[in-house]
Amino acid sequence: MLKGTFWTYSAWTDKAAIYAYAGAEPHKSTVRRKRKVMREATFVFFTAPVDELPVSWDEVRRRIAEERESAQRRPESH
Question: Which pTM was predicted?
């Protein structure tokens, strides 16, 4: 089994497009098989103008850190 941290990012026209992809085969069954390995995955959604793509890895990391900080400040929902 692979161990470590793996980074990837992709650009989509909107959330509907990524959710359609995620719910279709072969992605859907692949994710189902990999749930245990992927349980600590972090997903961050943000918008960027097309002319700013590709976003730099430094910017991706900054946005992930910003999202994590924001999530820690949010009150827990019960």
Answer: 0.66
